Every structure is written in structure tokens, then in C-alpha cells.
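In the current project phase, we have settled on a layout for protein records. A sample record is reproduced below.
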Amino acid sequence: VGSEMCIRDRDVGIEISESGAIRLARSLILTDEMGRINSRTFERITDNIWARKEFIIDDRNVRSAELAVFSFCEQGGDGAPLYVEVNGYRVVHEWRAVRGYWEDRWAGIPVPVEYLKKGLNEFVFHADRGIVWDLWVENSLWPNRSAKSIDWGQTWNYDRMGFNDSCNGEYVVRLRLG
């Protein structure tokens, strides 16, 4: 019993069945980048500067969904909201001033599975006026599923992203499907 509790508490990649069998957790992580970033490859998300990340889901039959977003609230303080529009449905993530070690830059944002669809799914990030979130970008040319808008989501640019339009790549956003 003690070792089972230790595994359950420490590793989300392992499940223990009722009979005590150990197996890998049933989940899939969708990602288009490897996280090769530096301190200058980020996007400033504001009220008018929005970011879009697209994922293709082959099978919508999932039990759970969570976005893993490499981000930081630059301006706004405790409780500052980051809005994520998931195929037109809004999810709100709030900044917490006190975070755990693994949460310093990575934010886990639960997504209701009913917001997802088979095929192309859009995740659009934006903030309120006076709030600034940083979202990191990995420079790459493929698969071209990240875009930036500087006009509140009216038009999108897949080639000029990041602070001062210095990047062309993918936002460091991953989607874990259970």
C-alpha cells in the first residue's frame, strides 16, 4: 500500500488498477515543437495581440483534455486572466502568484472535452487591457499551426510572431488527451 501511494502521488504517467497492476497512463500528448526556446523567443499576449494554436484531433472520443502552456504573466498580478477560446468556447486561466516548481512557466489548463471536435481545433489566447502574458515560441517552419493577430483576432499571420515579430514558428503549447 505504501509503494502504491508513492507512485500515485509522484508520477502522473503511471496508473494502478484496482487489482494492483501497474501500467502507463492512457493519454496522448499532441505537440508541434520540442521546446527549443530562449529568453527572447516569446509573444506578448495583450488585449489586441492574440495568439492561435491549432491541433488536429483524429479521434474525438476522449475522457479528458488539458492544455500545457509555457507562459508567464508579465503584468497583471495574482488572478490576472488569460482567455483561451477553444473552438469558440471560452476557458479562463488565472495567474497564481504562488506556484509550484513545475508550474513556474508551465500552466495546466483543463479543457472541457465537449469543446473539442474531430479535425482541426483552434485555441486562441488573449488577455484584458492592462494584462500582459508571455507565451514562448520555438522557431521552426513546420507544421505552421501557430499564428499571431495584432487586431483582436480579425486577421492572422503565420510567419511573423513573437516580440517585435522576430520569430516564425510554433507556440510552446501542448494538448494532453486522456
